[in-house]
Amino acid sequence: MRKSPLIGSLVPYRTIMFLWLALMTAAASAQTVYYRNNFEDGNTNAEIG
Question: What is the dihedral of CA 17, 23, 24, 26, to 10 degrees?
């Protein structure tokens, strides 16, 4: 009886935090790739790999 409220409260919290961290990571990497494509045309492919 005690596990149901804990699961109901912890799982969405972890899911939201995971999605938020993934979103921020994707945004940071997208900005990095964007700047590298604009300012470092020669080294972009080597650094992303």
Answer: 140
